[in-house]
């Protein structure tokens, strides 16, 4: 059975990934506070879902997870966890600590997790490394505002693009995917699509990921996004 690991799995897009993949795969669902993750724990009671602790911005948390998973294969690793960042992130006012924390979680976090679980990915059949980024990280398509969020997503795009090159020799394929504007705590109630629709599209993109699409910036419908 395919094993899929999802970060930020307790709500939003991450929880929907777990819900959908649990129908066909074994899922390792990671979140900061498993004891608080009511919906996820309910899923884990009826499906093949293991809930594990992971703060993606904390290298020691990722190392603990890697120790717990030593020797296990992860076929698909999904870096989904993310934050929108501080209230003040405009050209006029910036909360620099909040800015750095946004980078820690959105940009460095996926690198921390990918490196910590590199051996698990190598042991997997699919060897697919997926990062949920945002169209707001596109420099050529950028309007103003949301500086920390936009910059952190542009940075993770570059990090994942580099990993697509540097780990290609290991057979690892890298997906850099925009989920669309999704009705979650982050996207808000006025967003365009449900988590269910977004994740259905994202799963399709992950299923068809190959050497040609590895390292490219695509949306959940498969449309290429300009860097
Ligand atoms: N919703 C949209 O319209 C949209 C659009 C473009 C891109 N995205 C991206 O899609 C991904 C998922 O977003 P979402 O809409 O599902 O957001 P969400 O509903 O706000 O959920 C964010 C998830 O990330 C987790 N998280 C935050 N910081 C973490 C950390 N340090 N360690 C581990 N988990 C952490 C949260 O856990 P806690 O409950 O512990 O905080 C939560 O599970 C993000 O990367 C986001 O940037 C979303």
In short:
Helix content is 39%, strand content 15%. It is built from seven helices and seven strands.
Explain how this protein is built.
The protein is an alpha/beta fold and 227 residues long. The chain has seven helices and seven strands, in the order βαβαβαβααβαβαβ. It has helices at 12-21, 38-46, 59-68, 96-116, 118-122, 147-166, 195-207, and strands spanning 3-6, 26-31, 49-53, 76-79, 128-132, 173-178, 217-219. Helix 1 (12-21) crosses helix 7 (195-207), helix 3 (59-68) runs parallel beside helix 4 and helix 4 (96-116) packs parallel to helix 6. It is globular and about 50 Å long. The structure holds NADP nicotinamide-adenine-dinucleotide phosphate (NAP). The site of NADP nicotinamide-adenine-dinucleotide phosphate has 30 residues, from helix 1. NADP nicotinamide-adenine-dinucleotide phosphate binds next to helix 1.
- What share of residues is helical? 25-40%
CATH class: Alpha Beta
Bound molecules: NADP nicotinamide-adenine-dinucleotide phosphate
At CATH level 3, the topology is Rossmann fold
Instruction: Kindly estimate the percentage of residues that lie in beta strands according to DSSP.
Output: 5-15%
CATH superfamily: NAD(P)-binding Rossmann-like Domain
Class from helix and strand fractions: alpha/beta
Shape, principal axes of CA atoms: globular
Radius of gyration from the CA trace? 16 Å
H/E element sequence: EHEHEHEHHEHEHE
Distance between the termini: 35 Å
SS summary, helix count: 7
Mean pLDDT: 97
For the largest beta-sheet, the strand count, sense and barrel status come to:
7 strands, parallel
Which stretches of 5+ consecutive residues score pLDDT under 50? none
Number of domains: 1
The largest sheet has its strands arranged as 3-2-1-4-5-6-7
For the secondary structure, the number of strands is: 7
CATH architecture: 3-Layer(aba) Sandwich
């Amino acid at each position: 059975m395919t094993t899929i690991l999802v970060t930020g799995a307790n709500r939003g897009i991450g929880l929907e990934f777990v819900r959908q993949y649990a129908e066909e795969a074994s899922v390792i669902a990671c979140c900061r506070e498993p004891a608080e993750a009511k919906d996820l724990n309910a899923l884990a009671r009826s499906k093949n879902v293991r809930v594990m602790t992971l703060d993606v911005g904390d290298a020691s948390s990722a190392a603990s997870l890697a120790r717990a998973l030593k020797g296990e294969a992860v076929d698909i690793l999904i870096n989904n966890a993310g934050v929108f960042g501080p209230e003040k992130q405009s050209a006029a006012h910036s909360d620099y600590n909040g800015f750095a924390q946004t980078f820690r979680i959105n940009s460095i976090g996926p690198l921390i997790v990918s490196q910590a679980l590199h051996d698990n990915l190598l042991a997997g059949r699919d060897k697919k490394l997926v990062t949920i980024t945002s169209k707001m990280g596109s420099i050529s398509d950028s309007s103003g505002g949301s500086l920390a969020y936009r910059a952190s997503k542009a940075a993770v795009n570059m990090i994942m693009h580099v990993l697509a090159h540097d780990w290609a020799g290991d057979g690892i394929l890298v997906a850099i995917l925009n989920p669309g504007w999704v009705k979650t705590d982050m996207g808000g109630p006025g967003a365009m699509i449900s988590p269910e629709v977004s994740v259905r599209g994202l799963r399709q993109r992950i299923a068809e990921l190959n050497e040609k699409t590895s390292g490219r910036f695509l949306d959940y419908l498969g449309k290429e996004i300009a860097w």
